[in-house]
């Protein structure tokens, strides 16, 4: 008779959620990266004729895309910190989109992915102290 320890199923489920978060986050980052690079390469970042507020808003959105991509990369090693960066970037992008009058629905995917990373961090922080939110090894 094979006996399993009590937490084996929970550990297995955490690993499944971890890989779902990693793969979905990586796919989101990879889907955003070509569009971001194409806009930069084709000159869509030409701000001639725009007022100062529109230029600042455009640079904020560029910074948020970069922050979300970097946050997903960080979440592979530090789930709490990376998830917080992605969540912050997604929420600010949603606010900026609402100010623009358009709601970026794809940001909901970033919120969902960051929620998975933050859940994983929350579940593992008690078991494994090296996964603390702000302590980077």
Topology:
Blueprint: H1 8-41, H2 52-75, H3 79-100, H4 107-125
Structure in words:
There is one protein chain. With 137 residues, the protein is mainly alpha-helical. It has four helices and no strands. It has helices at 8-41, 52-75, 79-100, 107-125. α1 packs antiparallel against α2 (52-75), α1 (8-41) packs antiparallel against α4 and α3 packs antiparallel against α4 (107-125). The longest helix has 34 residues, at 8-41. The protein starts with 7 loop residues before the first helix and ends in a 12-residue tail after the last helix.
Kindly state the mean pLDDT as a whole number?
Answer: 79
Question: Structural class per helix/strand content?
Answer: mainly alpha
**Which ranges are low-confidence, i.e. pLDDT below 50, for 5 or more consecutive residues?**
none
State the helicity in percent bands. Answer: over 70%
Shape designation: elongated
Q: Figure out the total of helices.
A: 4
Round the Cα radius of gyration to an integer and report it. Answer: 18 Å
Q: Termini, distance in Å?
A: 41 Å
User: What is the tally of beta strands?
Assistant: 0
Q: Let me know the largest β-sheet.
A: none
Strand and helix order: HHHH
Strand share of the residues?
under 5%
């Amino acid at each position: 008779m094979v006996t399993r320890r009590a937490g084996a199923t929970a550990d297995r489920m955490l690993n499944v959620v971890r890989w779902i978060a990693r793969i979905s986050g990586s796919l989101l980052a990879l889907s955003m990266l070509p569009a971001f690079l194409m806009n930069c390469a084709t000159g869509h970042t030409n701000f001639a004729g725009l007022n100062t507020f529109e230029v600042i808003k455009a640079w904020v959105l560029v910074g948020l895309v970069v922050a979300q991509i970097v946050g997903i990369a960080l979440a592979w090693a530090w789930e709490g910190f990376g998830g917080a960066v992605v969540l912050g970037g997604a929420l600010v992008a949603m606010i900026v989109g609402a100010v623009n009058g358009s709601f970026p629905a794809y940001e909901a995917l970033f919120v969902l992915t960051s929620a998975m990373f933050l859940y994983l961090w929350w579940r593992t922080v008690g078991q494994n102290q090296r996964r603390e939110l702000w302590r980077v090894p």
